Every structure is written in structure tokens, then in C-alpha cells.
Amino acid sequence: MQHQKRTAIRPHQERFQVRSFDVDTDNRLTPTALTRYLLEAAWQHAKLLGYGYSALGERQRFWVLSRIAVEIRDLPYWEDIVEVETWPGGSQRIFALREYEMRLRDGRVAALGTSAWLVLDSETRRPVRIESLFDPRDFDEFRRALDRPLEKLPILELAAPADSPQDDTKNTNNANDTAPPSGRRTALACPPDPDYRKTVVYSDLDRHDHVNSVAYLKWIIDSYPWQALESAHLDSFELNYLAETGGGEEVELFSTPHDTTGPDTIAPADATAPAGSMSAGDTIIPSGTRVHLVRRRSDHQPICSARLTWR
After folding, report:
1. Which pTM does this prediction carry?
2. Which of 205, 235, 230 is nearest to 69 (CA)?
3. pLDDT in the model for residue 220
4. Fold of 155-310
5. For a disulfide at 14, which of 41, 103, 120, 147, Cβ 3.0-4.6 Å?
6. How confident is the model at residue 287 (pLDDT cuts 50, 70, 90)?
7. Is residue 13 pLDDT above 80, yes or no?
């Protein structure tokens, strides 16, 4: 296939003002709002480059986010102005990589991120090779925002209750679970009882009638006791999107401490306490890492794995 010489792609900048509905109890930008800003900048850049949502839709194709990793440096406050710079970060197999840098008005870095995207065929729901749609030179490697690769996150395996047989239901073969490998995906054991359950509601859905990528991060953060979150600070988060799920589905969230770098994470003294509550003796997360799994309750299909690091 012959490609005409074209002008090198330049990074794209989008400015955002932090609104009242995008901040937490400390008046600082929430991780979910931060992620929305990054993804909105990505969508706008893709549109300017000629492979946005509408352009791909004309060819019965659409983008899906497969993986994202974000490091938080200095979150902005309500009414602050931030600038998100984004640029293509190269391609790897069937993935288009994209980089992000958010800066405060004075030039300080607020957050850095990287992501991996797939293009799916709207009829088959299978990935399409990037080279069949775009000039490969569009994806020549630029600088990396993060100095580490996107990783395959561990998949939590639930320990069987003492009075129940081991649940061998596993099904992780799907289009989204093919992100660029960085070592083999490992499994971690976690308690059999979920930290959080919910039914997918209308506000969780995107224009494809599937759960929006940011909703998973919100669910995971909401699974922590809210009192603990007032004293904890999120340093970084990574999400792997493994499968789709839609409205009305019941989902369960499981978690376990892993690679802890400080005192143990939020661990209720009363193990039967519901999510969102604390009792005397609970430990508030000052630092450490937790790995999470979101799965459908109906068939136990893993739909999202995540790793959050706190201080």
C-alpha cells in the first residue's frame, strides 16, 4: 500500500477548567474526572487526525480502550486551569498507544499517563489491524510519558469458602484481553467474599450501551470505606479492560493487598462490615498497593482488573 508523504503529527493540547462537580471533599480534582480529561483530549486529537469516532464509524469500526496507566503528581483544585497534552505513542501489534501529560498553569506536572487502544469491527467485535486503517507513519514512536511499559495486571483468583467446592468457572478469552504483553499474566489469591456489589445502571453506560471505562475506576474507589479515602492519597492507578458488560448486569468487586510498600491497606477490624463503613480498629491506608477484580456475577466473567497505589 502506497502512502503519500505527510506532515509529522504534533502533540495536541486541550485546556480544562476544574468544575465544582469534578472535585472531592478537599476541592481537588478526582481521579475519575482526571481520567475523563485525558480521554476527552485523546478523542479530540483522533478526530483532528482523521480517525475519530465518526470517521471510523463510516468504516464499521470503533475504538475501545484496552488498558490505561496514570501517575498522579499534583492534583489541581476547583477552578484551576489545566492543560492536557496528548500524542500517539507508537503501535504494538494490533494496539495503538497514546501518551498523556497534564500540567498546571504554572507548568508543574499534575499527572502522566499512557494507554493502549484497539479498533474493533462493529459486526464481528473482533480487533482490526491498525495498518489496515491508518498510515503506519502516524504511529511512529514518540517520547513516552511514563518510563515503564503497560503491564498485564494479575487476575485475582477467589479462595473457595471452607464449606463450598472450589469454583472452577473461568473465561478470560475475549477481544479486550490481548493488550501488549509485559511478562505473563499472573494470578493472586483473594478472599471469596466481594468488597462491593452493584447493578449496572443507565449512568454507567456509554454510547455503545456498555459500561464506560471511567465507571470501573469509580466503582473500585467507591469500594473503599469513605472515611479512609479522606486520609488517603492515590499515587497511581492502572486498569486492564477484559470484557464488555451492559445495563442491568450485576457486578462484584474483589480485592487483596499486594506488593504493599507501607502499612497494610484499609482492613476493617470487623470482616463482616459492609463496604463504605468503618469500625473501631480499622486501618486507614497510608501507603501500599491493592489489586482489584471486577467480574459479572451471572457467569463470573472477569471484566476489569486494576492496581491502585496509595500513600
Report:
1. 0.82
2. 235
3. 95
4. Thiol Ester Dehydrase; Chain A (3.10.129)
5. 41
6. low
7. yes
Distance from the Cα of residue 277 to its chain's centroid = 25
Res. 283: pLDDT tops 90: no
CA distance 145 to 36: 18
What b/e readout covers 205-235, taking b as 16+ CB neighbours within 10 angstroms?
Answer: beeeebbbbbbbbebbbbbbbeebbeebebb
Measure CA of the first residue to CA of the last residue in the chain; give whole Å: 51
In the chain, which residue ranges form alpha helices assigned H by DSSP? 31-49, 53-57, 213-222, 226-229
- Which single residue is written with the C-alpha cell 478526530? 47
**CATH 1.10.760.10 applies to domain 12-139:** no
In 3D, which of 39, 32, 41 has the Cα closest to residue 14?
A: 41
CB proximity list for 185: less than 8 A, separation 6 or greater: 152, 153, 154, 155
Evaluate if residue 40 carries a pLDDT over 90: yes
Domain boundaries, the chain: 12-139, 155-310
Rounded Cα–Cα distance for residues 106 and 187 (Å): 43
The residues pairing with 255 across neighbouring beta strands, listed in sequence order, are 292
Indicate the pLDDT class of residue 191, thresholds 50, 70 and 90: confident
